[in-house]
Q: What sequence folds into this?
């Protein structure tokens, strides 16, 4: 069985420490024919050097460098464009030292018939209530955008088999979302749970997206209109009714647009590749 382990590498990660431990794990010992696919930014020179040394000593490594900072989705989207094919792709998170244990559980679910395995954090008590509430509200808007639901799984962990990978390769523009949704007819899914305190990859929601830019613009219009409404009622004695009707109408339109568009910012960050074709990637073996 041809297994790929997908590891985008970000800043503040000790590459040598992580992979030394992974290569010594029982999981790797049992699957020495697997391929480790890594993505790393060229400016991350120290860890790139460590990764190159690992690749020289371990032919299972494939190291790809990028010209700029990237997200997990950017790397995943780029990977799908390649001609590389695996029977199984394991999504890896370099924040988790004992990632091999999660991979083992994913394979167990696959052996029970799962084409895709989701990984979620186990939340308890009030945290669980808040998490379920947020998921319900978030998926209300996701259904408006896509007619599907986001599983709200950890996007940097899981398993996807060849049958599903082949589907994602045919529709790459939707691939990042589809690896987070359970909307495939004819494909089975399973979910495993990890402890809530385990540190995992976090999306950067501070990135500017078209949805966020639109939200900022209409927020500015909203507050400018609100100020106009207040000052108009203070300083003008005539035509107050007309002014109030127009400004209140504008305020309502702005609020509706903001409420609909702002959630899409979170959807875009979590479920799309923002760089898409702009990410320049090199394979260091080709240098």
A:
């Amino acid at each position: 069985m041809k297994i790929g382990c997908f590891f985008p590498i970000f800043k503040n990660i000790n590459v040598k420490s992580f992979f030394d431990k992974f290569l010594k794990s029982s999981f790797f010992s049992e699957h020495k024919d697997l391929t480790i696919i890594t993505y790393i930014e060229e400016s991350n020179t120290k860890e790139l050097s460590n990764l190159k040394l690992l690749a020289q000593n371990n032919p299972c490594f494939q190291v790809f460098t990028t010209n700029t900072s990237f997200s997990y989705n950017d790397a995943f989207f780029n990977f799908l464009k390649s001609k590389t094919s695996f029977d199984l792709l394991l999504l890896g998170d370099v924040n988790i030292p004992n990632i091999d244990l999660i991979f083992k559980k994913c394979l167990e679910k696959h052996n029970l018939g799962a084409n895709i395995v989701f990984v979620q954090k186990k939340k308890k008590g009030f945290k669980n209530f808040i998490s379920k509430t947020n998921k319900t509200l978030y998926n209300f808007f996701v259904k408006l955008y896509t007619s599907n639901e986001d599983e709200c799984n950890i996007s940097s962990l899981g398993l996807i088999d060849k049958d599903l990978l082949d589907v994602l390769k045919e529709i790459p523009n939707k691939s990042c979302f589809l690896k987070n949704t359970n909307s495939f007819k004819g494909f089975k899914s399973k979910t495993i749970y990890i402890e809530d305190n385990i540190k995992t990859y976090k999306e950067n929601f501070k990135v500017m997206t078209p949805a966020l830019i639109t939200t900022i613009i209409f927020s500015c219009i909203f507050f400018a209109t609100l100020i106009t409404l207040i000052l108009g009622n203070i300083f003008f004695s005539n035509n107050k009714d007309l002014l109030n009707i127009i400004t209140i109408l504008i305020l309502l339109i702005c609020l509706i647009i903001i409420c609909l568009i702002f959630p899409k910012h979170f959807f875009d960050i979590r479920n799309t590749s923002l760089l898409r074709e702009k990410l320049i990637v090199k394979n260091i073996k080709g240098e």
About this structure: The chain is about 50% helix and 15% strand.
